[in-house]
Design goal:
Elements: E1 8-11, H1 14-19, H2 23-32, E2 38-41, H3 48-56
Parallel strand pairs: 1-2
Length: 69
C-alpha cells in the first residue's frame, strides 16, 4: 500500500464486534492499519454500545437509522 493512497476500513455487524469479546482482535487490526483512515461501521441494530461509540468518536460520526414498522 502506498502511503499516499487513502485507507478505508469497513466493519459489518459492528454491534456484534463491539459487544462480543472481539476487543483483542480489533485492537490488533487498529494497531496495524494507518492512524489516518476512514472507518465505516455497519449494523442493523443501534445498541447502547453503538451510541457510546458515537459519543466518544474523535470526529462527528454520521448515524443513519431506518425504522421499520
Amino acid at each position: 500500500m502506498n502511503k499516499q493512497s487513502p485507507f478505508i476500513k469497513v466493519l459489518d455487524e459492528a454491534d456484534r464486534l463491539l459487544e462480543d469479546n472481539f476487543g483483542d482482535q480489533l485492537q490488533t487490526i487498529f494497531n496495524k492499519i494507518p492512524k489516518k483512515r476512514q472507518t465505516l461501521l455497519f449494523s442493523a441494530t443501534i445498541t447502547d454500545t453503538i451510541k457510546k461509540l458515537q459519543e466518544v468518536s474523535t470526529t462527528k460520526p454520521h448515524i443513519f437509522e431506518y425504522q421499520t414498522e
